[in-house]
Amino acid sequence: MKTPASWNSPMRTGEKYPLIVLSHGLGAFRTIYSAIGNELASHGFIVATVEHRDGSASATYYFNNQSAAETGNRSWLYLRTLRQGEEQAPLRSAQVQQRAKECSEALNVLLSSFPVKNVLDLDFDMQQLKDSIDRNKIAVIGHSFGGATVIQALHDDQRFRCGIALDAWMLPMDEKVYSRFSQPLFFINSERFQYPANIIKMKKCFIPGKERKMITIRGSVHQNFADFTFATGKVTGHLFTLKGEIDSNVALDLTSKASLAFLQKHLGLQKDFDQWDYLIEGEDDHLIPGTNIDTSSHGILQNSTEIDKHNAD
Question: What is the pLDDT of residues 157-213, one digit of tens each?
Fold first, then answer.
């Protein structure tokens, strides 16, 4: 599979770019969001995708020491599944806090522009990032578990000026966090994944005087935000819920343009992304303003364990 990108191309000197830190979902990995990542990068963003080591990635590895790095002796971390009888919420709560710290640590590395030990041998010159990132224009975006990570990161690190949560899975969140961050937040949801208990938790983030937006993409499924939706044919895609009723390219286009409009507004970008401001309000035939989920008769679910029965990915 080819992507419309040139490996290790030098950056233009004298220019500063806005930065996006991207957080993957449960059971996913850093490269499975190349479609949305490339699309945002093509509009002038530096996009850095974190591969989390909290046990939520499908598989990831690290080097114990410099010698291991030099010899390629990898220490693997695999997806941490629930043990028999184990409650999900405590595990996910600990993971989301680690994930947010990893997003901040990634930001530290990117802003320092110095070589780091025990990183993947990608032959990438970190020095080219020096003086290339606009420190006042940094956002965090995440899918599913990554959506919860967005909220936690906004709470923990004020350097993230705004966040976009793609089909966020809210179970990992401590409800105290909902009202304790001030940065703008944009929920972009699929039509088929969301359910009352999850939406109720999202709505608790809607605090008077704080910028909060929510839209839903008609006919979309949870995996419309990841590359899985482009890697399968129509029959297989629908069979495994990797494709929705909406064309995958249309869903990506809506997600990208709505995100760009939101980022321009809240990062103060001098671009033309405001031409898509109407998408933030859900004003498109393929969009639903807010949510398609009726929560009016589900108040009891606010403290319910029903959400515990749902896995994010």
Answer: 999 999 999 999 999 999 999 999 999 999 999 999 999 999 999 999 999 999 999
Task: Give the tokens for residue 131.
Answer: 């003086």
d(CA 19, CA 232): 30
Strands 212-217 and 287-289, sheet pairing: antiparallel
Q: Pick from 103, 111, 109: which is nearest to 131 by CA?
A: 111
Residue ranges covered by each domain of the chain:
18-309
Query: 215 near 258, Cβ under 8 Å?
Result: yes
Active site residue 310: no
Range with the lowest mean pLDDT among 98-107, 126-135, 210-219? Answer: 126-135
Q: Is 43 a catalytic residue?
A: no
Of 54, 167, 227, 313, the active-site residue reads 167
Task: Decide if 294 is catalytic.
Answer: no
Return the CATH architecture of domain 18-309.
Answer: 3-Layer(aba) Sandwich (3.40)
Given 34, 144, 190, 256, which residue is catalytic?
Answer: 144
Residue 160 tokens, joined: 């993230």
